[in-house]
Design a protein that fits this description.
There is one protein chain. The chain is an alpha/beta fold. A hairpin with a 4-residue loop joins β1 (about 175) and β2. α30 packs across α34 (about 890-905).
């Protein structure tokens, strides 16, 4: 029953389940059994508990795609995709083992590999049924399905969209359906293998690219999605579009910018191939070029539009000003003009004196003296004011006769006279003062000041006002024009003055607290107290009263009648209103509790109604000084009434009253001041003014007073059109800034100098710390960094362009406007930007210091570290906001610099582009500081700075510059000192300290330029060392770099030390000493001055001496420490630089005379400034001209220093471009000198050779040789001396003077020695020949005697030539037969046997005799590594493997041995000498020398078998040539043969003898035939030298040094593009060098222009003229010798003597002619001329078809000797040293190093060639081994032994494009040559493959 009931229930549940299936459209008949069988479920309720894994099992059974969705709905799979445990799916009996949880792609790939093996197991098993295989596939499909789902869930949680997309794309290409998360069919082996392979490869490429650039990585992902598909399938365009839509939906717009741009570009297009091509280009990097080209066009158009913006240039003068100048002319004030003339300012009026007059260094800068003439007063005034000396107010002409100084009578004669009577004394008192005592004897100091003001332009006025304010002196506010009635209100002039003060709050919540103010004073709203005088006053001075109010020390803020230099008569102060401010310091003894402005109207107020009325309107309190009240006129009463009725309180000071009754009006206070105690009066007046100010509301800023000034008709200086235009533009730009939050201005409006710039700097620095990353080489790392740098620059451009309104307006305005308008604009920008940031910066700085103090206190008390950490985070946050909120003009210019650098990298040289640095250069010329080093990034934008210098050179010329830099702890007054010394504009306010380094140009007066030796001073101001803002941020390293840079760039460094703080002093000294030590090590010699500020004035001399001693000790101590760090042995600072503790330390007094803000500067400080300035200029005057650089050289020096600083080892990395340039120039000069010497000695040698061959020279004494070259040698020596003395780089060159002179001397000695040796060899040959010729001469004489006898018998007979010849032949044959019978047969030498004997004796090998005999004839020598090479032992261990580089080296040595032997044999053949057994010994010696030349630390060397084989080959080869030589020699010296060879010559002599007097023509023809071979030889010899000389003079390649020639060779190789040439160059550099020279000579001479023919004809004509001259001279001598009968013999003697140095024509060769009967010498002369002309014509025809093979000495060999130089090869890459001088001083160097693959270098245990270049390696963290020694860092390669230590390989951050192009272009040939592959670490970077030949060649041009 129960069983039935159970069955019914089961059936009911099954029915319900079937209904559920049917509801979803599923066939219950099919699916119900499946669900029960697979999942074991039997009820509808069980469906709710099924998991995603259950669904996956069912999916394998689907028959139609729609069933998947139905199953998903049935099982509610929407939310059931968990992280899946694969193990759980299969039971133990299943043979699948996968990792427990798939979370990374590697796990999925591993699972796929397992599934592949699983399927293989099923399919490979014998007897596997189809169902079993099917079952296996189901499981192999299910497992990846689950693994993919698990992985997707994992990456979803980690938000790894790219990995998710990659998996989905590849899985989908094999049938995976994303919607259902299942495969649509069962997977087999191919599908699983395909997925595993594609996922692994695609993921690896994606990750590799991601390390380099995210854009390229995403491009790879996108391209994979568009193209991935099994091999058998192809994707249709529709499918690709679907995939693209899917990928875009998946990424939901999160693509990187470049991918977005690419997709946007192709969005409308239907051609997916175009998108794929662009993606390929982007991945390879070539799309950047397309991007660059398109974007650059837009960018440049934007830039052009910016500079074409119609910013109307403003007029420098306003209309009012124009009318004013006309009025000046109309109503010129004679007294005023006379004053101007008196002080020498007439040429400067009106307003013609500018900032140049203030800044220019002139003679007064060199001395601290007094003016002796009135015309000197303005210069001294400006100089004293420059140094902030407030005593400038008392400046008058210094006069010995000044009556103001009592003097002792000098009349010595009156000493013995009785004294005058008292009556006489009284009479003297009553007499009038002498004329010389007239008070008008000197210019009133205020007249001088105002005269300068009237002559100054607005910018100088502003500077003067700023300096006067710094000196706490009153400033002119209202200034009447001395030539018109106009009154000027000076607003602009006062707009730069900044004052700070503290006020105590009296009410509200902040009562009792002090508020700090730091403002531009013209913007500060303050109460104004105005002082007037009504009537004349002889007793009281209101200026003096004001001074007492403003200063307790009674500092003369306002000049008054009792000041030194005052006179009763003053011209320019009447009606002038001066202003000064009282600034409280928040102290109880403050005179006033708030900032108060005091105005002082000079003169009687009754005469200056306009000024008085204006002051009444703006004043909070009026103070009237009234004299003689009882007799006051109506004007005075009316004026006083107006003041009384005014709304402003009035204080009436009565000068003729002692006491005054209390007034009835509370707003009018009357005070009697006659005979009052000054202290009491001041107390009363102070209290009165203070009380009145409390009850008075009006506060005005000067800015707010402008409208009132205009209403009164005053001229406002700020109303000039240029100023108005500039201010409006400045406001416009600052309003743009105000739209952004202060701390976000830079990021939003100046984005280039933020994050991207910092990233670029970081990447740039990485180039000096290259590393091997994984399986990537150093060059890959380098290429990657270069790519990333370029990408960052590209992103900068994307952010910068189109230019935002701020930068567009800023650049456009600076470009379009006139210089004055720019100055106004920059000043207003500074004012408005300071106003924008000053307040907030002050708050941030206070917050910063508060937090800093709390942290320091916490560290001391060791409080909760967590609290301290929070405070530190807050501090970092404030520090960052402080940096971001600091905004000034320098940031705008920095942005311009970044725009330039980004554009420059994109190679966009356009007119608009060049205008950017021109703007900065113009600002420098106008006197503005320009940023040298970015203070925020602590980086130097080298290209931008270089461009500025280039623009300066274009604008000013390449001027000489003295560089003065300043170094010191932060906030120690460095910038203040520079401002006081040179009037510079560096930031000195507390609001923003100097960051980084700024440079400013100061012109030197023309009268001083010659004296000082330079045209400008460039001052470099730096940020303070140990700045709090950069604390804990590698500040020590930063400070060291900064110090090294500024000390290196400066000719002199002022090291500023403040106070007596020992720790601060130690900090700055340690940093400075290390920097100076580095300079010494790189051969730079800057000087220094120590400025010790804030030292008490009354410090005793002994105390100063003690301080000097302590400083010297401290410097020496720091030197020892620094020397240890720099690895050198120095113990004294004076060993580092020329330092004298007594003269190189300047002690400075306190800056202030009292307590700021009301304290004036200390006059002693000003004197110290002047003394320091004078000392600096005097020291600069004494500096060597070597250290005074021109702007171009300074640019190079800055680059050298910065590039060296980027490297970890400054000294090792420093490249002194100036020295290199000077040395290269010296090499070029050396080349010219050596050529002159060589050319002259070649001439001498040719002359001597001819004399020897002619038998006229039997000995060549050394003294005679030296005499022949002395004149040329002495001339060269003088030139060398002059060069080293007068060249502009003479002080750099002096270090090479002695070695250069020595090299020239050695060359002279060598050339003379070689010449002497050649002459001696030739003489010996001639002697040997003479012995052989002695017998020949006997035979010749006998033959001549017989022929003459025969001729006598035939004389007079008319015989034909045939008959004569028959007679002669009969006699000659008879004589030859006799000679042949009489002479011994020549001895024949068995050369083969002799060679055998020598070889047997040399090698002594058993069985060697047979080996010699069996050596095949004609066999070539083949170098065999296995047979000929012997491995060496190092440390007892034999080298395991011989590298390809070693084999190449051994082959090279072999080829050189063979070449030298062949050359030696060639030489012997040319000399036509006989064979000698010594020749064999020479060959064996050459082989031995070659074997010995293998370097001692090489891994292998030649073995004995090599020596034997090579010696056998060379001896056998030489034997054949020696046989031919011997045969030729024997034949030449056989008497019979010899006589037969001369048959024709003897016949001609016989013929001439027979013909008698009619034979002169034949005589001439015969003689010319003798001359012909000698003349031909002489022509070729001379032409060879002439061609070499001509090419050396015309071709730049041959005019300079070896480095230039090397560049020409590389250019030639690239242009030819022939790998065989490259191969020869790499393997045999010296031989290729000669081959190149030969090619150049041939192309020059045989280029179709008949140049060779012209050279030959030129030499021929010269020699022809010499021979004609010899004919004429010989004829003349014979004619004059009447006594001689043997005229022909005498003629021949003289003829040969004249030609003895011209051609080789031995007199002995003409014996056959000397007995001829020639009587008509004149006829002989004409016959010779005719015959010589025919000879010349004949030779000219021959030369017309001549080629280079005719030269015995080739022109290229002469050039090769001239440019031989050094041939040492780089131990890393094999590149040859390019020094012009053999045995040169210093290290070997090379500009273009190359990949190490060129010496066959491969990565260990691979055949992968090394592509790393040594100039990159030495900047890397890599290591290398020499043989089997220890690993050595490339950075210390000098430690690897002599081969390495003699080379200087500098890090090179340039592109080094040439060899990279070569490797990419000839990859296949190089792989074959070096038997390796450019794979793995040796893979050629993509960037290399993109380099074009044009780029490679352009890099050669730049070097």
């Amino acid at each position: 029953m129960a069983s039935q009931q159970d069955t019914q229930e089961r059936d009911a549940k099954a029915q319900l389940l079937a209904e559920e299936l049917e509801k979803e459209g599923l066939d219950a008949g099919y699916w119900l059994p499946k669900m029960m069988q697979i999942l074991g479920i039997k009820s509808r309720e069980a469906l709710q508990h099924l998991e995603y894994t259950d669904y996956i099992r069912l999916v394998c059974e689907v028959r139609h795609q729609w069933e998947k969705k139905a199953l998903q709905k049935l099982l509610n799979m929407r939310d059931k995709v968990p992280s899946i445990n694969v193990e759980r799916i299969f039971h133990a009996e299943q043979p699948l083992r996968t990792s427990a949880k798939i979370t990374h792609l590697e796990g999925l790939i591993k699972t796929l590999q397992q599934m592949k093996e699983h399927i293989n197991a099923f399919t490979d098993a014998l007897g596997s049924s189809a169902s079993a295989v099917h079952e296996g596939k189901k499981k192999a499909t299910l497992t990846p399905n689950l693994a993919i789902s698990a992985l997707l869930q994992s990456v979803l949680e980690r938000i790894q969209k790219e990995v998710e997309l990659l998996v989905l794309l590849i899985a989908a290409s094999t049938g995976y359906q994303v919607e259902s998360s299942t495969f649509q069919h069962l997977l087999g082996h191919p599908e699983i293998q395909y997925m595993a392979k594609e996922m692994e490869e695609a993921h690896e490429e994606y990750m590799n690219l991601k390390e380099q650039d995210a854009d390229r990585a995403e491009a790879s992902l996108l391209l994979t999605g568009l193209t991935v598909t099994p091999e058998s399938q192809e994707l249709s365009p529709e499918q690709k579009r679907e995939r693209l839509v899917f990928m875009e939906d998946h990424m939901k717009g999160s693509w990187f910018t470049q991918i977005k741009n690419l997709l946007q570009k192709h969005r409308e297009g239907t051609d997916s191939e175009m998108l794929e091509r662009d993606l390929h280009s982007l991945i390879s990097g070539s799309l950047d070029d397309k991007w660059d080209e398109e974007r650059m066009q837009k960018i440049l158009r934007d830039l052009e539009d910016t500079f074409a913006t119609n910013e109307p240039p403003s007029q420098a003068k306003s209309k009012a000003n124009g009318s004013e100048s006309k009025a000046n002319e109309a109503t010129a004030n004679p007294k005023f003009l006379q004053l101007l003339k008196r002080v020498g300012l007439e040429s400067h009026y009106p307003r013609k004196m500018g900032m140049g007059d203030f800044h220019t260094i002139n003679k007064t800068s060199l001395q601290d003296s007094q003016p002796s003439q009135d015309t000197e007063l303005p210069g001294y005034f400006l100089q004293r004011l420059l140094t902030v000396d407030y005593q400038v107010r008392y400046l008058t002409r210094w006069d010995e006769s000044n009556p103001g100084l009592a003097s002792v009578p000098e009349n010595a004669e009156q000493e013995d006279e009785p004294s005058d009577s008292f009556e006489n004394f009284l009479d003297d008192l009553k007499e009038a003062a002498p004329a010389c005592a007239n008070r008008d004897g000197h210019v009133h100091p205020m007249d001088l000041q105002m005269a300068i003001f009237h002559c100054a332009d607005d910018f100088l006025r502003q500077t003067l006002a700023t300096k006067l304010a710094f000196c706490q002196l009153a400033l002119p506010l209202l200034v009447p024009n001395p030539c018109t009635s106009h009154i000027e209100f000076l607003l602009y002039a006062l707009s730069q003055i900044q004052r700070s003060w503290k006020e105590v709050e009296k009410s509200g919540k902040q009562a009792g607290t002090k508020s700090y103010n730091n403002k531009l004073i013209f913007q500060a709203q303050t109460p104004i107290v105005s002082f007037f005088r009504i009537g004349s006053s002889a007793s009281s001075s209101k200026s003096q009263l004001l001074n007492a109010l403003l200063s307790r020390r009674k500092h003369d803020t306002f000049f008054h009648r009792h000041c030194r230099g005052s006179t009763r008569e003053r011209l320019l102060m009447e009606g002038v209103v001066e202003i000064a401010w009282y600034c409280p310091r928040g102290s109880p003894d403050d005179t006033f509790e708030c900032c108060v402005a005091f105005c002082n109207l000079h003169g009687d107020a009754r005469d200056h109604g306009a000024q008085l009325q204006f002051l009444q309107e703006i004043s909070a309190v009026n103070v009237a000084l009234v004299s003689d009240l009882e007799h006051l006129d109506s004007r005075g009463k009316e004026l006083l009434q107006g003041l009384w009725q005014s709304q402003s309180p009035l204080i009436c000071l009565l000068m003729d009253k002692e006491k005054v009754a209390a007034g009835r009006h509370s707003r009018t206070i009357t005070i009697g001041i006659k005979n009052r105690n000054e202290a009491e009066l001041m107390e009363q007046l102070t209290k009165t003014i203070g009380n009145l100010l409390e009850g008075s509301d009006p506060r005005f800023s000067l800015d707010a007073c402008v409208d009132k000034a205009r209403q009164h008709g005053f001229i406002v200086d700020a109303d000039q059109q240029a100023c108005v235009t500039a201010k409006a533009k400045a406001k416009e730009l600052v309003n743009l800034l105000k739209k952004e939050k202060l701390s976000e201005i830079k990021s939003q409006l100046l984005p280039l100098q933020g994050k991207l710039w910092n990233q670029w700097c970081k990447k740039d620095k990485e180039l000096t710390r290259l590393q091997e990353k994984g399986d990537k080489s150093i060059e890959h790392h380098r290429s990657q960094i270069e790519y990333e740098k370029k990408a960052l620059r590209r992103k900068q451009l994307e952010q910068a362009f189109p230019l935002n309104p701020l930068m567009k307006s800023f650049l456009g305005f600076l470009h379009a406007q006139a210089a004055d308008t720019k100055k106004y604009f920059l000043q207003w920008m500074k004012v408005l930007m300071d106003e924008l940031s000053c307040g907030h910066l002050g708050e941030l700085r206070r917050d910063y210091h508060k937090l800093w103090s709390e942290i320091q206190a916490g560290k001391k008390s060791q409080e909760n570290t967590r609290v301290n950490a929070e405070l530190q985070n807050q501090l970092d946050s404030v520090s960052e906001e402080l940096r971001d909120s600091s905004i000034g003009l320098e940031h705008l210019l920095r942005e311009v610099g970044q725009i330039y650098e980004a554009l420059e990298l994109m190679n966009s040289k356009t007119e608009s582009f060049v205008k950017l640095p021109e703007i900065a250069a113009e600002l420098m010329v106008l006197g503005y500081p320009v940023e040298l080093m970015d203070g925020d990034a602590s980086y130097l934008p080298l290209r931008w700075v270089g461009a500025i210098f280039d623009s300066l050179i274009e604008r000013l010329g390449d001027k000489r510059v003295f560089v003065l830099s300043v170094l010191g702890i932060q906030s120690t007054g460095k910038s203040t000192l520079l401002n006081a010394m040179f009037g510079l504009q560096f930031n000195v306010s507390a609001g923003r300290c100097t960051r980084g380094a700024f440079m400013q140009l100061i012109p030197v007066g023309k009268e001083l330029q010659q004296d000082l030796g330079f045209d400008f001073v460039l001052v470099v101001d730096t940020e303070g060392l140990r700045a709090i803002e950069v604390a804990n941020k590698q500040s020590l390293s930063h400070d060291n770099e900064l110090a090294t840079f500024v000390i290196g760039v400066g000719n002199m460094t002022v090291i500023n030390v403040f106070g007596e703080n020992p720790s601060e002093m130690q900090d700055v000294l340690q940093i400075a000493v290390q920097a100076f030590l580095r300079m010494k090590k790189v051969n730079l010699s800057p000087s220094c001055l120590f400025v010790h500020q804030n030292v008490g004035e009354a410090t005793a001399k002994e105390q100063n001496m003690e301080g000097q001693r302590r400083l010297q000790e401290k410097l020496d101590e720091m030197t020892v420490v620094a020397a240890q760090q720099e690895y050198c042995d120095i113990s004294s600072f004076s060993d580092v630089i020329g330092f004298d503790v007594k003269t190189h330390i300047q002690y400075f007094a306190h800056l202030w005379e009292g307590n700021p803000p009301m304290a004036p500067p200390n006059p002693t400080y000003s004197q110290n400034v002047q003394q320091l300035k004078s000392k600096i200029l005097q020291a600069a005057k004494k500096q060597s001209q070597r250290s005074i650089l021109r702007l171009s050289s300074l640019k190079d020096r800055i680059g050298d220093l910065w590039n060296a600083l980027l490297n970890e080892n400054f000294v090792f990395s420093f490249k002194n471009s100036l020295e290199i340039a000077a040395y290269r120039k010296l090499e070029s000069a050396f080349s010219q000198w050596t050529w002159r010497l060589r050319s002259h000695i070649l001439d001498v040698q040719m002359r001597l050779d001819n004399k020897i061959r002619n038998g006229d020279l039997q000995n060549v004494p050394r003294e005679e040789l030296e005499g022949l070259v002395k004149e040329t040698s002495d001339a060269i020596e003088k030139e060398v001396e002059k060069y080293f003395r007068e060249d502009k780089d003479c002080e750099i060159l002096v270090q090479w003077k002695s070695s250069t002179e020595l090299k020239l001397k050695e060359l002279k000695e060598t050339l003379l020695h070689e010449t002497k040796k050649k002459c001696e060899t030739l003489i010996e040959l001639q002697k040997e020949q003479k012995k052989l010729d002695a017998k020949k001469l006997e035979y010749e004489d006998e033959l001549l005697r017989r022929s003459r006898e025969l001729a006598v018998t035939l004389k007079g007979k008319s015989l034909s030539e045939r008959e004569l010849r028959d007679h002669f032949v009969s006699v000659m044959n008879q004589w030859i037969a006799e000679v042949s019978r009489a002479s011994c047969p020549p001895e024949r030498v068995d050369i083969d046997t002799e060679i055998e004997d020598v070889l047997l004796e040399h090698f002594k090998e058993p069985g060697f005799h047979e080996r010699i005999r069996s050596f095949p004839k004609g066999r070539r020598f083949s170098f065999d590594k296995k047979k000929h090479v012997m491995k060496k032992k190092h440390f007892g261990i034999t080298t395991r493997k011989i590298s390809e580089a070693d084999v190449i080296n051994l082959k090279d040595i072999t080829d050189k041995i063979i070449a030298r032997v062949i050359a030696n044999i060639d030489k012997k053949e040319q000399e036509q000498c006989d064979y000698s057994p010594n020749f064999i010994h020479e060959i064996l010696n050459e082989v031995q020398e070659g074997v010995n030349s293998v370097h001692s630390d090489a891994k292998c060397s030649f073995n004995r078998e090599y020596s034997i084989d090579l010696s056998l080959y060379l001896c056998k080869m030489a034997a054949e040539r020696f046989k031919v030589m011997h045969e030729a020699f024997q034949k030449a010296n056989d008497p019979g043969e010899y006589l037969s060879s001369k048959r024709e010559d003897f016949f001609q002599c016989f013929q001439i003898s027979c013909q008698g007097a009619t034979s002169i023509t034949n005589f001439a023809v015969f003689l010319c035939n003798k001359i012909e071979p000698a003349l031909r030889r002489a022509v070729y010899e001379r032409t060879s030298k002439d061609i070499a000389e001509d090419m050396q003079g015309k071709f730049p390649d041959f005019q300079g040094n070896r480095a230039n020639l090397e560049v020409s060779i590389l250019r030639y190789l690239a242009e030819q593009e022939n790998f065989e040439y490259f191969k020869q160059y790499l393997e045999f550099p010296k031989e290729f060098f000669q081959k190149y020279l030969e090619t150049r000579v041939e192309s020059y001479c045989l280029d179709g222009s008949r140049r060779l023919e012209k050279f030959l004809d030129s030499s021929l004509n010269l020699l022809y003229r010499n021979i004609l001259s010899a004919v004429a001279l010989s004829t003349q001598i014979v004619k004059d010798r009447k006594d001689r009968e043997d005229k022909v013999s005498l003629w021949l003697d003289e003829f040969c003597r004249e030609l003895t140095e011209v051609i080789s024509l031995p007199r002995s060769d003409l014996k056959g002619l000397e007995h001829q009967e020639v009587t008509d010498i004149e006829f002989l002369s004409s016959a010779m001329a005719e015959a010589l002309a025919a000879l010349r014509d004949r030779l000219m025809k021959e030369f017309a078809v001549a080629d280079m093979s005719s030269f015995s000495r080739q022109p290229h060999t002469i050039l090769a000797e001239q440019f031989s130089g050094c041939w040492e090869q780089c131990p890393f890459c094999g590149a040859v040293c390019t020094n012009t001088m053999q045995g040169h001083d210093g290290d070997h160097q090379r500009v273009f190093h190359r990949p190490r693959a060129f010496v066959g270098a491969k990565w260990r245990k691979t055949d992968h060639l090394v592509i790393d270049i040594c100039s990159s390696l030495v900047a890397s963290d890599g290591f290398f081994k020499v043989a089997d020694s220890k690993w050595i860092p490339y950075k210390t390669y000098h430690d690897a032994g002599t081969r390495f230590s003699t080379w200087k390989i500098l890090p090179d951050s340039s592109m080094q494009a040439y060899w990279k192009w070569f490797v990419s272009h000839f990859r296949t040939q190089l792989e074959a040559l070096y038997n390796g592959k450019f794979q793995g670490k040796g893979e050629i970077p993509v960037a290399w493959r993109r380099i074009t030949k044009k780029e490679a060649l352009s890099e050669l041009d730049r070097r």
